[in-house]
Amino acid sequence: MWSFTKTTILTLSSTYFLSTSFASIIADPLEAQRKRDANNLRARNIVSDSSAIQSSYDFIIVGGGLAGLVLASRLSEDSNHTVLVLEAGDSGDANITQINTPADTYYQSLVGSEYDYAYKTAQQTGCSNRNVSWPRGKVLGGSSAINGMYLVRPNEPEINAIHSINPNDTDEFWTWDSYNAAMKKSETFGAPSDDIAAEAGIQYNAASHGSNGPIHWSYPGETFNIVGNWTPTLSTLGIPSNPDSASGDNSGAYITTSSINPSNWTRSYSRSGYIDPLPPRSNLDILPSATVTNIVWKSGTSGNLTATGVQWASSSSAAKQTVNANKEVILAAGTIGSAQVLQLSGVGPSKYLQAAGVDVQLDLPGVGQRLQDHLSGSLIYSTDAETAGTLHAEGVATAEFLSYINSATAYVNLTTLLGSDSASALISSAQAEVDSSASSLLPLGDSTVAAGYKTIYDTITNQFYSSNSGQIELLLSITSTSVLIQAAIQHPLSVGELYITSSSAFDYPYINPNYLVHDADLTILREGFKMARLVSQASPLSAYLTGETTPGSSVSTDDEWDTWIQGSVGTEYHPTGTCAMLPLDLGGVVSPSLVVYGTSNVRVADASIYPFELSSHLGAPTYGLAEQASTIIRDYWNGVSTNPNATTTTSSSSSSSTSSGSADSKTNGALHTIFSTHELEGIVFAAIACFSGSMLVL
Q1: Which residues pair with 410 in a beta bridge?
Q2: 441 forms bridges with which residues in the sheet?
Q3: pLDDT score at 3
Q4: What is the distance of C-alpha 684 from the center of its chain?
Q5: CB neighbours (10 Å) of residue 567?
Q6: Annotated binding site
Q7: Which residues of the chain have pLDDT under 50?
């Protein structure tokens, strides 16, 4: 399709058409959006009537969240492959304005709405026995439709460590060079205006970013003086400014990119980037409000399990329906959902499956194990300075203002956080506790899971602790009338688990991240909050703050900090690990090709496969993960041998394929300053419909 649209644009450029309606579309991105909306183009691959779906598809994708919609878009580029996405949540159309408006993340949050699973953890012994809220997106786009929109790439040593732990990654899909190319493939970078960059102190290196992907990486159209004091303040505390945080070293302080489309100041997320701009694809169906209840297995076979399809239902009281998979079932239901579906299908730790009344098809102990999350909290300060919260209270509602979201961050390594001597002491102490931690902190007690825990424990304590990798993230928030300085632990040694408690997909699983059960985690988080307080007291930021209201002066000793932390911290919304990509003898669930061990045609491709927490927000790496997964799957079925470092996929001659991550720079350079390739495909399709004289309703 894209090779056709390039030719079409060149042809139309000398025609009457380009001088009229198409020219207006190109000139005005908002008009382009209106044209798409007016013709119902947003819904063209989304099925509202379940009776319209086929009885079988080549690929069934379970979950239409961040990763699932990337996979749907990329796999359906091959016209010889049919793709179905089953998403438990709604389409999101009824609340599209809230989804699209970045600031509504704070002021009209969809957390707690029908678009949020609203999970709760089990009581956390390390957090004063509290049940911690775990919001997760239940809508097309998943959490990318309701999250805080941070786009932070992980560190090169972290990704290379994943490769090292997985010796069967012979194609090197999980090395930094290959993985970074996949992240860039998903991205269209938009530089801030000169005024915004100067006021906020934004630094960037455009060469480290992608220029032609479906997801916009940009900056708000509004900022505030206080933001520009973030990096100068941190530099006085030994935390340097980082002018190139997307290059594989995200340490230090900076104003990070966010998933904002600067052409119209809207949220850029997996649906708006990968699905909405597509032309009609007869080989792609996306069905919302369809909860997958289990995978259907081929009966009477020995060896690996083979999936023949899935069952799904629209509600707990509705009849189950079956759809067949000709090639693969791909789980992209997230850290909670993918492990849950595997367990409901009889794949997981046998003792948990039996207790839930599920027949065991495959005893795979790692499913649901290694559950981790970034744990965070906030120090709150009063201020007389202008904040986004004060302007919102005054009724300011311009598109530029409503694009403002928090994006000032810093990743602080252990030596900077603790000092050299204390950091060395903590590292030595933690390294000495690996065996005792493995025997006392792992709920399941499986030897392979314990072996994997020790391997990752050694990676964290021997590599990450002594490197420049951030062990604490600091964040600045000014979206209320107060100023918040937040701290979040990045590489916890505490791990938990997730398991089903019934055979129903509509019953929530048991979720236990085991927050702060390792003493090193509490020490690091405590020191992170102490660092946050030092930031508030340092110039020039201190001039904007008039007093600490939470926790206040009553908290100063280590014991006081620990009590406050355990009673107040919560999720940073980054759960991972339940379908870890590790060798089978280390408690792994998927191989480097993302195939579930013991199955022949089931893969997992979402944030659940990370074997440890990354020192980043998970959106950016998971876009890269989904791009990489798409390449792996397409290569396998198209019989193509590709260079994993390439940013596009070349398909065999038997398939009709587009390369949405590539473009001819001479032809498309100017257009791609405004639109991603996916958007251009949709615009050209609308233009052709106009030109033909038949405005299609699609």
Answers
A1: 253, 474
A2: none
A3: 36
A4: 29
A5: 13
A6: 139, 292
A7: 1-27, 31, 34-39, 642-675, 683-698
- The residues that are catalytic are 574, 617
Cis status of the peptide bond prior to 540, with omega within 30 of 0: yes
DSSP-derived 3-state class of residue 358: coil
Cα–Cα distance for residue pair 599/222, rounded to 1 Å: 50
Q: How far apart are CA 584 and CA 599, in angstroms?
A: 13
Known binding residues for FAD are 139, 292
Contact yes or no for 335/622 (Cβ under 8 A): no
Residue 562, class by beta-carbon neighbours within 10 Å (0-12 exposed, 13-18 middle, 19+ buried)? middle
Please state the three-class secondary structure of 486-529 as a single string: EEEECCCCCCEEEECCCCCCCCCCEEECCCCCCHHHHHHHHHHH
According to the model, what pLDDT value does residue 44 have?
A: 76
Burial track 661-678 (b if 16+ CB lie within 10 A, e otherwise)? bbbeeeebeebbebbbbb
Q: Return the pLDDT at 337.
A: 99
Task: Indicate the angle between helix axes 420-432 and 519-537, nearest 10 degrees.
Answer: 160
Total length of the chain:
698
Prior bond to 551 cis, omega within 30? Answer: yes
Ramachandran sector of residue 81 (left: φ over 0; alpha: ψ -120 to 50; beta: rest): beta
How far apart CA 277 and CA 682 sit, in angstroms, is 5
Q: Is the pTM of this model over 0.85?
A: yes
* Interval 212-244: pLDDT, tens: 999 999 999 999 999 999 999 999 999 999 999
**Structural contact between residues 239 and 252, judged by C-beta atoms closer than 8 angstroms:** yes
**Alpha-carbon gap, residue 310 to 422, rounded angstroms:** 53
Angle between helices 176-185 and 619-638 in degrees, nearest 10 = 100
Q: 187 pairs with which residues across the strands?
A: 215
**Domains of the chain in sequence order:** 1-38+663-698 (no CATH), 94-271+369-628 (3.30.560.10)
CB-based contacts of 653, cutoff 8 Å, min separation 6: none
Contact 206, 189 (CB under 8 A): yes
CA 271 vs CA 32, 364, 414: distances in Å? 17, 33, 38
Contact criterion met (CB below 8 Å) for 400 and 385 = no
β-pairing, 483-489 with 321-331?
unpaired
CB 59 within 8 A of CB 75: yes
